[in-house]
Amino acid sequence: MKELVVISGKGGTGKTSLVAAFAALAGKVVLCDADVDAADLHLVTQPHRVETHPFVSGHEATIDPNRCTQCGLCLDWCRFGAINDTFSIEPLLCEGCKVCAHLCPAQAVDFTEKTCGQWYVSTTPFGPMVHARLGIAEENSGKLVALVRREARRIAENQNYDLLLTDGPPGVGCPVIASIGNADAVLAVAEPTVSGRHDVHRVLQLADHFKVPAAICVNKWDLHPQEAERISKDVREKGALYAGQISFDPVVTRAQVAGRSLVEYGDCQVVREIQKVWENVRDLLSRDRP
Q1: Which of 142, 194, 233, 240 could form a disulfide with 174 if both were Cys (CB 3.0 to 4.6 A apart)?
Q2: In this structure, which long-range contacts are made by residues 249-254, counting pairs with CB atoms below 8 Å and at least 24 apart in sequence?
Q3: Distance between CA 166 and CA 180 in Å, rounded?
Q4: Which DSSP string do the residues of 2-40 spell out, in sequence order?
Q5: CA–CA distance from 64 to each of 9, 57, 70, 73, 91 (Å)?
C-alpha cells in the first residue's frame, strides 16, 4: 500500500481539488483529510458518515465553587486572563498550564482532559475517507493529524487498498510534519508567485529532511508564466520531480459549488493537465524508496 500526501506552502493553492481529482482518476482509494484545522475535502467527495469519534487531548481547568474560598491566588497568577471575577474559567482562554491547580490552597481546581473535536469515518464514491473537525481555538492539531492518518492506514491495510491519498495541511509546521512521516511521496502544489517559489524551497527542504520523495506542480501557472518557469527550473536543479502545471479555469470553482471533483464534473483542458500530473506522481509512487 502506497501513501501520497498532497501539501502546499500556504492555504488556497488547490490541493484539496487536486486530491479529489486524483481519487476520481485512481478509482479505488482510501482518502484522508489531514488538514484538520480547516478540513474541506468532504465538500467535493460526497461523503456518507458512518462513524463519529471524540478527539480528546490536553487538559482544561475547572473550579469547584463548593470548594473555592475565593482567595484570589488563581486570579493573580493566571497570565492568560482565563479566570474571571466570579472565579470560573473561560475555556477559550485557558492554556492548560496548571498554575491555578498547583497554587490553589483549597484544592478547588480540577484539571481534566478535554474534548477538542471529532474525527469521522465516511464512505465516498471513491472509497473510505477518514476526516476530522477540530474545535474553535483548539490546539494539538498535529496529534489529530497523526490519528486520522493512522486510522486511514489501518482501513487501507485491512481492506486491501493499494493507495492512500492524504490531503495535508499547508505550511511546514507541526501538522505538516505529522502528515508526511513515513509517506511514500509528497506532492506540493505551488502558485506562480515570488512567495510561491519560496514556499517550494521550504517544502523541498522539509521533504528532504524526512527522506520523502517529493514532486512539485504549479497551479494557475498561466497567471504568471515567467514565475512558473522559474519554479520549474528550481525544482529540477534541486533534483525533485516537476510533475507539471495546471491552468487557471473558472470550471474549478463551478465543480466546487456542485460538490464534485473536476474529473466527475466534465472533460476540459484542466482535467487533462491534472491527468498528466497524476501520471507523473503515480510513476514516482511506483519507485522503491532509497
Answers
A1: 142
A2: 252/14, 252/17
A3: 9
A4: EEEEEEESSTTSSHHHHHHHHHHHHSS-EEEE--GGG--
A5: 45, 22, 11, 15, 15
CB 10 within 8 Å of CB 35: no
- Are 42 and 201 in contact, with CB atoms under 8 Å apart? no
Quote the CA–CA distance of 65 and 108 in Å, as a whole number. Answer: 7
Could you give the CA distance from residue 135 to residue 249 in angstroms, rounded to a whole number?
Answer: 33
Task: Report residue 167 as a C-alpha cell.
Answer: 490531503
Q: State the number of CA atoms in the 13 A half-sphere of 220 facing the CB.
A: 18
Per-residue pLDDT tens digits for 113-172: 888 899 999 999 999 999 999 887 777 688 999 999 999 999 999 999 999 999 999 999
Task: Let me know: does 246 contact 218? Beta carbons within 8 Å.
Answer: yes
Task: Count CB-CB contacts under 10 A for residue 236.
Answer: 12
pLDDT in tens, 12-39: 999 999 999 999 999 899 999 999 988 9
Q: Tell me how far the alpha carbon of residue 130 is from its chain's centroid.
A: 12
